[in-house]
């Protein structure tokens, strides 16, 4: 049972435009969310996180939005750059002190020059 | 400031052999986690260790798999009598000792790609 779902396996965006990556979750106990970026043959790299007490967190070109009632979060990248081309994973923790990250299957972003 | 180190990066084993995967956490980190990624899948939690202690191994198969994080040296994930289904990427992550924050970010190594022939 997939508790974290990334329903778009891939996404193509023109350089300079906005990339929006979506993530849905089913477990109401999830309260802290992270986005990781992964290049081929490398490990996931932490990008940005958000606690369930917030609805937005911004770091440079990256913004994560959380809609708790819809159990939905999204990652916005503005402006998109060719170096952003990678697989993006949404991950979640459930409850204070938890340490098991539950990952989605990832979305492959291609930024076209 | 070196990140999480894993070796080997690639490992080929024949069915029935043993695989040993090593992970050195980031400096100052005392918590280690192992995850497995099958093709076209997300990462799946296997085990969480602190120095000399296994805290949670609920994600690890009951047979053939074991993990340790000794007082000195790297964490080791050991797979005995490997089968083709063990072929996957194995990622190690580390985090610092808890500072009372709700959750600590986990920082990942480059992974070991295991291929069982």
Beta strand count of chain B: 11
Largest sheet of chain A, described in full?
6 strands, mixed
How many alpha or pi helices of chain A?
0
* Mean pLDDT over the residues of chain A: 94
Poorly predicted runs of 5 or more residues of chain A? none
The number of distinct helices of chain B, counting runs of at least 4 residues, comes to 0
Helical residue percent band of chain B: under 10%
Share in β-strands of chain B: over 45%
Walk me through what this model shows.
The complex is a heterodimer of chains A (113) and B (117). Chain A has strands at 4-5, 10-14, 19-25, 30-38, 45-51, 56-59, 62-67, 72-77, 86-94, 102-103, 107-112. Chain A is mainly beta and 113 residues long. In chain A, the strands form two sheets. In chain A, strands 2, 4, 5, 9, 10 and 11 form a six-stranded mixed beta sheet that branches. The model of chain A has no long low-confidence stretch (mean pLDDT 94). Chain B has strands at residues 5-7, 10-13, 19-24, 31-37, 43-50, 53-56, 65-68, 75-79, 88-95, 107-108, 112-116. In chain B, the strands form two sheets. In chain B, strands 2, 4, 5, 6, 9, 10 and 11 form a seven-stranded mixed beta sheet that branches. A four-stranded antiparallel beta sheet of chain B has the order 1-3-8-7, with no helix packed on it. In chain B, a hairpin with a 5-residue loop joins β4 and β5 (43-50). Chains A and B meet through β4, β5, β9 and β10 of A and β4, β5, β9 and β10 of B.
Identify the notable features of this structure and list them briefly.
heterodimer, A: 113 residues, six-stranded mixed β-sheet, 0% helix, B: 117 residues, mainly beta, seven-stranded mixed β-sheet, four-stranded antiparallel β-sheet, 11 strands
